[in-house]
Amino acid sequence: MVEYRIDRHSGVATYVQIVQQTKQALRLDLLRPGDRLPTAREVVEATAINPNTVLKAYRELEREGLVEARRGLGTFVRRSLGATPADSPLRGELEQWADRARAAGLERDDVAALFTAVLDTYFEGDPT
């Protein structure tokens, strides 16, 4: 089951953070079709956010066809997003690179900007 981490200082709306983290879990195969998402109550207890925020995020995921709400049972994953398992060899290489970046004194925002620039170069025009 996914555990949401809310960064109140990121400038990103809380419901968007939930949507993004759910999509990331789907891409990494941490969530699979049939898995149940945490209930709104469970998310509220873990993160101290408004239950309506959780429901808004889940409605967005449902609108995108990624999850479905089953009355009285919860919200379940309908489909996956990617083919990159969490234990991919590429993840290990990326972790080593991130370790070197940190050792070189780069801050998180610096690494994100550098990584985004490389992604933009290699995936230019890719709608995903």
Automatic annotation (TrEMBL):
InterPro entries: Tscrpt_reg_HTH_GntR (IPR000524), WH-like_DNA-bd_sf (IPR036388), WH_DNA-bd_sf (IPR036390). GO terms for molecular function: DNA binding; DNA-binding transcription factor activity. Keywords: DNA-binding, Transcription, Transcription regulation. It comes from the Bacteria. SUPFAM superfamilies: Winged helix' DNA-binding domain (SSF46785). It holds the Pfam family GntR. The keyword ATP-binding does not apply. The keyword DNA-binding applies. CDD domains: WHTH_GntR (cd07377). Residues 12-80 form the HTH gntR-type domain. Transmembrane segments: none annotated. This is GntR family transcriptional regulator.
